[in-house]
Amino acid sequence: MQISGAQMVIESLIAEDVSVVFGYPGGAIMNVYDEIYKQDGFQHVLARHEQAAIHAAEGYSKATGKVGVAMITSGPGFTNAVTGLADAYMDSIPMVVISGQVPMSLIGTDAFQEIDAVGISRPCTKHNYLVTDAKDLPRIMKEAFYIASTGRPGPVHVDIPKDVTAQIEEFVYPETVELETYKPTVKGNLRQIKKAVDAIAEASRPIFYLGGGVINSNADKEVRELVNLTNIPAVETLMARGTLGVDNENLISMLGMHGSYAANMSMSEADLMIAVGARFDDRVTGKLSEFAKHAKIIHIDIDPASISKLVPADFPIVGDVKNVINEMIPLAKEKIDSTKYAQWRETVANFDKLHPLGYTDSDDVIKPQWVIERIGQLLGDDANISTDVGQHQMWAAQFYPFTRARQWITSGGLGTMGFGFPAALGVKRGCPDKVSINVTGDGSILMNIQELMTAVEYKLPVINVILNNNYLGMVRQWQTMFYDKRHSSTDLSMQPDFVMLAESFGGIGYRVKTKEEFDAALKDAVEKNVVALIDVTVNRLENVLPMVPSGGSLFNMMLEHKDK
Q1: Do 341 and 374 fall into the same domain?
Q2: What backbone phi and psi angles, to 5 degrees, belong to 300?
Q3: For the chain, which has fewer Cβ within 10 Å, the N-terminal or C-terminal residue?
Q4: Known catalytic residue: 162?
Q5: Which one is catalytic: 30, 42, 104, 113?
């Protein structure tokens, strides 16, 4: 059938079984929005800012494992979205972002709301397209979804000039994709897998290093089976929280800059590291030359470019984590004696006894760590936890009792303040049966506060828990520790009335200064099932500990901070 380019976009989205698109219209994308008005194949959620639209699509994708879709216009519409694209790229989130562009005849003329979108998006997307002919649109849309969701996932950008969306051409949506230059390796090399299992069997102090690739591959069940089968201690990165679950006896905790003493010391003492879907990020490794320097390294990842990029792998295995682990399990049953690591497990347990992850609670002031623990006690598995970026993010990662994969939604690689609230909207849209909690700070929440309107309009009852210390907390912490308490531009004592702010948008607000008030507020917000801001006054100068100073070694942690 012959239809317009704009109709092709709609039909392609329906063919890809898209149920929701987050977006914001404008002149260059107007033809497509006219077709959105006419269709009933998917829901369009109008964000109040393009950055928020991308983050909402990210949250939806992270929570569901499906490809997130966002739609924006040209010029400032696109540039507003770049932070979201970069965030998705850094965290390997499968997304298709469709942008409008000025008509072909105006490209390169500095026309109104013209920007070189494909040039700008090239460094922060897995792939991008400038569509110059409507007859290419079905193929391009099919390829975009395929590229976004296969191999190492990532965002794909499709830029469509306005005259191309008006063009009439034949529409036949392809059933398959053939890309000669893009063929991800999904099956691991069996010889390498056997060598890796032999190395595990021979090791005395092995450790699993679990990264976000486990989540992206939906391999959490397989990884749990292998870890439990071998009884090998395991650490999780920030992006892998929830992989093993809080009750797993083999889970030490999170490692890295704000990882636990036991996790960081265990990694430092290991003689074999099994890196699964992890990319050796600097916030994990600290000083590279000192990172697990006694260990041989097995590195499993679908992205060949990530293997030996930062740390040379002794046993490199390129392949989808799920497939590789499934190959390893029967070999492990045959070759690995799980009792062999009893002494090593005891060593790890002693690390934890020596400096357990904890904090000094108080009845006089609310400690932020207590808030996280309390949310876990009251909601546990029933909640999905999104966060912004800062101290609150680290406390949530450290102290929430995660039970499953895709329960934890945060910005890892880019560290984007303003991510949490719109992401939590996408999470709620993707998982309506779970309570969507956004743990945020008094700095972060104001970066996309306009999305209160989106949440109210579309009945997406996200509960925002603001750990309010009247500071840009993480920057303040660094200024305290490393800049002789010169708190430059981090004091946030001047604040809006968050209760009134929530109510002005049609939500509900709570001001909390005691533990009893917090319990009452959270229970009320959950029962009422409305968009909420819970403004929690917390200890102002609380620090996130342990802490590995930037560029320091994992085994050289700051376990406490005493003011001079």
Answers
A1: no
A2: -110, 120
A3: C
A4: yes
A5: 113
